[in-house]
Amino acid sequence: MARMKFLCDAERCIDCNACSIACKNEHEVPWGMVRRRVIVLNDGEQGQEKSMSIACMHCTDAPCIAVCPVQCIYQNDYGIVLHDKDLCIGCGYCFYACPFGAPQFPRQSNFGSRGKMDKCTFCAGGPEEPNSPEEWRKYGRNRIAEGKLPLCAEMCSTRALLAGDGDLLVEIYRERVVRRGYGSGAWGWETAYYGPETGS
Amino acid sequence: MVRAIGAIAAIVFAALFVIVLVQAFNARDLVVPTNAVIGGGKADPVSETAADYQKLAERLQLQRWRGEAGPSPEADPNALRVQVRYQPEESPYDRVVDWLGRSGERDELLQPRRFIQGQTWVAANPVVDVLAQPQGRDWRAFRNSWPIYGGGLFIFGVCALLAAFLAYRGRIRIREGESGESVPRFGIVERVNHWMTAVSFILLALTGLITLYGRSLLRPILGPDTFADLALGSAWLHIALLVPFALGLIIMFLVWIRHNLPSRLDWEWLKRGGGLGSDHSLNPPARKFNAGQKLVFWAVILGGALLVASGLTMMFPFLWAGYDGMALGQSIHVITAMLMIGLILGHIYIGSIGMEGAFPAIWTGRVDRNWAKEHHSLWYEDLLQRGAVSPRPATEERSAAPRGGLASRA
């Protein structure tokens, strides 16, 4: 079965932040929140610096879904993790559990109130009718329903960020590593897609 | 009568205990795709036919390398071949197990699981500087097992023990019967503060239990929407009640600390089990608070402080604790809360059904003279010495006064 994943090639990401901005623009993400951001590791250390674009990784056996007290987060058959903002109570549990800092809240510390959680939807909207005004207002564009993949990956100028079926991604990435002879691997995959609690 | 109710309740709570125990051993904490917040229903029509999938797979080819085509001549062509599986017939559970179990196929691609932090420029928010914190999964695994099942076992266990104690012992009577005459025990500040703290604790406990257990217990009954409203209200109430609860703890500490310092008497009291065992043994001497009450006091003060501190840690992310601190805070919060709920259940029991004559102390502020003499002998003598109460021959008046004559105290 198709399993959607993100893969960021750390050897190719140039920290241009176009993915974050494209995402913010495509979905009109509210001020103060970024569904996708680029993180620079070892900033300024010669030969050690790496950039990585990260958002919700749409984990297998997703911890956010497991801990949500109202069960407003769910996964679809593509493995995409989506949520229902009508049900969210802003408790922040998903944000404690998320290994990638994906869930964010419109208000950070207004006496503990946080508002409705927002996170990357893999451009698949939410539970509403695809691309209805309702869905657009809450979650942004639903590109998957249009047969398109996430915008961040599709417009990445260096092809560092890949999004799509995990098996095909691996094929593309492996081909790339074989061709150029090096690669630092799929960051976060061990954490996101192959949990330790297999079938426990 | 009371003892029969206690026996029935004990059996019910023991049965609930066993049910939770069975559930704990059969727990399967694995998230499977449901396609919607209402499990199974296709509320979200994400296309997942083979044709739709094919469209996405073709689209992905646009993300390929756009330089010169073809792999390097030295490359092993088989290394590139990956079989794409399309198996819509699998059950969601098998599918997730399949997803999870495939790490071995591509070991060389994986980075080790570790905490990674860097810097980002798109938002000034410490959350987004963290690339990966795999310990979030550990917190989830802990939170969904020990506190949930342990809490159920603990609460039902405490209830079963209390009910069994009621069945065995019945209500603890005032040995000499009610004298019909009362002595002052708690002032207005003590009582109002006790009830402010008590009401906020009970509401905090209920709203917290809704947050912890509502998903599995209430959501199937109420439906996702109604339950979400209830949970939202609970979350707000839980946060707002911090104020009266914390204030109550502080006042309680200031007002009662001088009565709650440990002394040699407490050791005696504990050694004799507080005289709880039977009507025939005399109660050990005690001042205003006996050792059991002192234990409750210190457990409430220390446990309450821990609850407030861990709760504030979760309310204000990254104020002084990072991800680990917040996850730890939640774990401490839920464990402390469970222990406190068990303690307070015992406290409520002994202050109401468990003991005759105890409840008026904190409600009207006055207790029966005989109750005071039996349970807090030294405090009662102190009252006499200070002249707060006039001494009187108890035996003659008791025979004259009817039982339950507390109402005539005015």
Could you describe the 3D structure shown?
The complex is a heterodimer of chains A (200) and B (410). With 200 residues, chain A is of the alpha+beta class. Chain A contains seven helices and six strands, in the order E-H-E-E-H-E-E-H-H-H-E-H-H. Chain A has helices spanning 18-27, 63-67, 93-97, 133-139, 151-154, 166-180, 189-193, and strands at 4-8, 37-41, 50-54, 73-75, 81-83, 161-165. In chain A, the strands form three sheets. Chain A has a two-stranded antiparallel sheet. In chain A, strand 2 (37-41) and strand 3 form a beta hairpin. Among the domains of chain B are: 1-27 and 142-170; 181-390, Fumarate Reductase Cytochrome B subunit. In chain B, helix 4 runs parallel beside helix 12 (323-351), helix 6 (188-217) packs antiparallel against helix 8 (224-240) and helix 14 packs across helix 15 (377-386). Chain B starts with a helix and ends in a 10-residue tail after the last helix.
Number of domains of chain A: 1
Average of per-residue pLDDT values of chain B: 81
Strand content of chain B: under 5%
Low-confidence spans of chain A: none
Layout of strands and helices, then pairs:
The complex is a heterodimer of chains A (200) and B (410).
Chain A: E1 4-8, H1 18-27, E2 37-41, E3 50-54, H2 63-67, E4 73-75, E5 81-83, H3 93-97, H4 133-139, H5 151-154, E6 161-165, H6 166-180, H7 189-193
Antiparallel strand pairs in A: 1-6, 2-3, 4-5
Chain B: H1 2-25, H2 50-60, H3 92-100, E1 116-117, E2 130-132, H4 135-143, H5 146-169, E3 182-184, H6 188-217, H7 219-222, H8 224-240, H9 242-256, H10 264-271, H11 291-315, H12 323-351, H13 359-363, E4 366-368, H14 369-375, H15 377-386, H16 394-400
Antiparallel strand pairs in B: 1-2, 3-4
Give a brief description:
The complex is a heterodimer of chains A (200) and B (410). Chain A contains 7 helices and 6 strands.
What features would you highlight for this structure?
heterodimer, A: 200 residues, alpha+beta, Alpha-Beta Plaits, two-stranded antiparallel sheet, 13% strand, globular, B: 410 residues, mainly alpha, Fumarate Reductase Cytochrome B subunit, 4 strands, disordered C terminus
